[in-house]
Amino acid sequence: MLPIRDTIRSYTFPIITWLIIGLNTVVFFFELNLSSADLNRFIQIFALTPANLHLNQPWVLINHPSPLITLITHMFLHGGWFHFLSNMWILFIFGDNVEDRMGSVRYLLFYLLGGMAAGVLQALVSPLSEVPSLGASGAIAAVLGAYFLLYPHARVTTLIPLVFIPWFIEIPAVIYLGIWFVSQLFSGIASLGLPETASMGGVAWFAHIGGFVFGLLFARLFIPRRHPAFLRQYPDEYWPW
Fold first, then answer.
1. How far apart are alpha carbons 27 and 42 in whole angstroms?
2. Which residues have CB under 8 Å from 209's CB, separation 6+?
């Protein structure tokens, strides 16, 4: 199922969402221009490698804290065109509305913390893994968790391909995102016990799970007091219904 758009219009311009998309784009094209050897070195330095975080020996980080920066840098790297475009498209659809509710500064903090929480959970699941983890999907999952909580009446226009006939259908956001989360949860559970190099196509399922749960649990803390998200109904939340 490919989301096309949601039915919620933002009241403010999503400057942080666009800046995040822009930064990811710049970094991705920088990656494309690196040689294979340079790209490998770049990923080794800036991607999140669980073993380098020493989560089972956190005192090591006191003298060597540099791996902690990868909790942020990994969410601006991508492993290919599909990885990059799919993440940016999802962020484009859902990020503006969450930023609209939180405000730009709070939204930026929420996005970064959500991505860090996602990375930590992925590292906790496989703390000795030396396979680099990269991508914005953990942080974007936090945005999806917040959207699930803040816009229960929204709908997502979705493309469902039927052989050669495209079928567009509007699905309640809570159902669309609920199905997405359940699929991540089952895939994550299924990936447990698999070899690290064969972990369900290399997808960091627990980063998605961790980000989404972070969004569900903490989104309300980032809503300004003057803007009570759980009491205020946007007049177009039901549009076009």
1. 11
2. 121, 141, 181, 184, 185, 188
Q: Which of 137, 146, 103, 99 is nearest to 119 (CA)?
A: 137
Strand partners, 38: none
Mean pLDDT calculated for residue range 182-191: 85
Whether residue 142 lies inside any domain: the answer is: yes
User: How many structural domains is the chain composed of?
Assistant: 1
What the block records as the tokens of 18 is 């666009």
**Tens-place pLDDT, residues 18-72:** 999 999 999 999 999 999 999 999 999 999 999 888 777 777 777 788 888 999 9
- Going across the sheet that includes 2-6, the strands are 2-6, 155-162, 165-172
CATH number at residue 45: 1.20.1540.10
In a domain, 163, yes or no: yes
Q: What φ, ψ does residue 155 adopt, rounded to 5°?
A: -130, 150
Residue 156 DSSP SS3: strand
Place of tokens 């680099």: 132
- The secondary structure element, H or E, covering residue 170 is strand 165-172
pTM over 0.85: yes
